[in-house]
Records
---
Amino acid sequence: MQITRRTLLAGASATALALPMGRVFAQKAEFSYKYANNLPVMHPMNIRAKEMADAIRAETKGRVDIQIFPNNQLGSDTDMLSQVRSGGVEFFTLSGLILSTLVPASSISGIGFAFPDYDTVWKALDGDLGAYVRGQIAKSGLVAMDKIWDNGFRQITSSTRPIVTADDLKGMKIRVPPSPLWTSMFKAFDAAPTSINFSEVYSALQTKVVEGQENPLAIISTAKLYEVQKYCSLTNHMWDGFWFLANKKAWERLPEDLRVIVAKHINAAGLKERADVAALNATVQKELTDKGMIFNQPKTDSFRERMRKGGFYAEWKAKFGDEAWALLERSTGKLV
Ligand code: X2X
């Protein structure tokens, strides 16, 4: 038989039917946990999470079974945050900026133009700054795994105009995720930011409730935002990552030996996801151009200037406090 992509896929789905995910092991799992997230199934987060769940099932001999609910299937980020707090879901990945509605310190990694590159990001988040934030998260009844997953450096898209300097953002109706830091930053640019959960972003752009939004290229591609946006300005205005969170009681219910296995695979999947996202963000521009997006590379001086003059850095330094700010600046250099 000649093996084509078609027969391969047919074979794969037949196997999937015979052995539904998670039912490969004869006995019922001792720990059946749910992991919810807001990203499309084709995003590296979900691809690596599936491998991770398979590896956990295999190494625990079926005792731990993690079912993945991608793409806001269980609700918006705001809904899923309540669910992981109550134990309705056991695991959830959330941007540190959105988590700041519960744990104020966790948005510090999203300060505008703080990180020049990925090396600086991982040095800080795998180092003292990350440890500090995880310590704060622990006080809230959630547990954060050691390795933060990548979302990426964020870029601004719009259906109306390219953003070349900060002036172009003036009055722009732009969607930002629900987080005080995001709103504050786009107010500093004189834009008109509206907080909208990611679950509503595509339709908000399609119906022109807002003109623009900002996200890393990997999301603009996998969530098909290029269908409803024309311009993409490579502002790299902030870095964003997802803390892999566990409900504390559910986490502690796992015996120590299982906890070690589960954490090992979650953190390993996170490192792979980081590499995938960086690769996607570096290569997907061509695909998006072919789909009709128009890119430009703005100079970022006017944006930084606006934030400095408007008191953005001073205001957030005061909110986070000297200890946290010093940890941030240890990696990034002086910001204020
Ligand atoms: O809501 C967004 O824009 C997203 C998908 O980037 C986050 O989860 C912060």
---
Amino acid sequence: MFNLLKDDDLTAEQMTRVLGLAAADEPAGHALAGRSVLLVFLERSTRTRVSLEVAVSSMGGSPVLLDNLRSRLADGETLADTGRVMAQYTDLAFIRAYQDDIDAFAAGFGRTTVSAGSDLWHPTQILADLLTLQQEFGNLRGLPISFVGDGNDICNSVMLGACALGLHVRVATPPDHRPAGFAVERARHAGELSGGSLTLLTDPAEAVSGTRAVYTDVWRSMVPDDQHEKEERFVEFADYQVNEKLFSHADPDAVFLHCLPARRDEEVTSALLDSSRSRVLQQARNRLRVNRALLQLLPDFAREAPHAGR
Ligand code: CP
Ligand code: NVA
């Protein structure tokens, strides 16, 4: 069984293969002809859902969308039971949901399941971001990058994915919003194997200093709008806005990254988001390339999985 639910479910070598194929983005013809790819979205999405639908269709496959409003999930059918049934119709699944729900679905589905983003990880996003950095700078190994803001799903995947490919990652968060210990541990372990490293800080200027890319994301993830909590967060995160002043501490050729959607003039100023240093649309475009590359390579990764064929 092979699942891609967090960044280190791929080896560094497999990640490099995904990036190589995505960089070339050659037409994949009818690689998915006759195959149905289930797209489960229990949380909202714009980019991930549309780029997956387009990728699957462009390869001759059928994308099948399942959400929690118009399915029996709304009536309480469990994700494991839903997964068991979906395996009767579809060959492969991408799912966006809280991590516990993704794990339950994957256990029931019993076929390759790929995270389309959870509260803990967003591995396909970070592959697109690494591709963006590769297109910009050529070589990824040894590249210093920073992440400023909330220690959230994107922060976890930036730390883990980038450390696995030998980048040096500096993270600055408010003291009460550090990334989770398990994510830090995994990223540090990945860095030990690759020559990468992770440094955790609270001073945003120190984190950004001399880095070649500055990444940020929203200050509140996967939560309903709560005005009171939002105002409290704004106070805690005020010094962590990525604006031109903070960005000026980065290397002169640094690029600005954001997975989107952005909250303009909250975690990033509109001026920087729209500036010539911003690569956010390139990141979004690269989601499609990475989806296509993954869809081509997933069968190989399943064959290469340690317990394949047993
Ligand atoms: N970056 C990203 O995953 O965007 P969506 O939530 O719109 O899919
Ligand atoms: N951290 C963000 C990522 C969006 C792709 C969120 O969970 O909303």
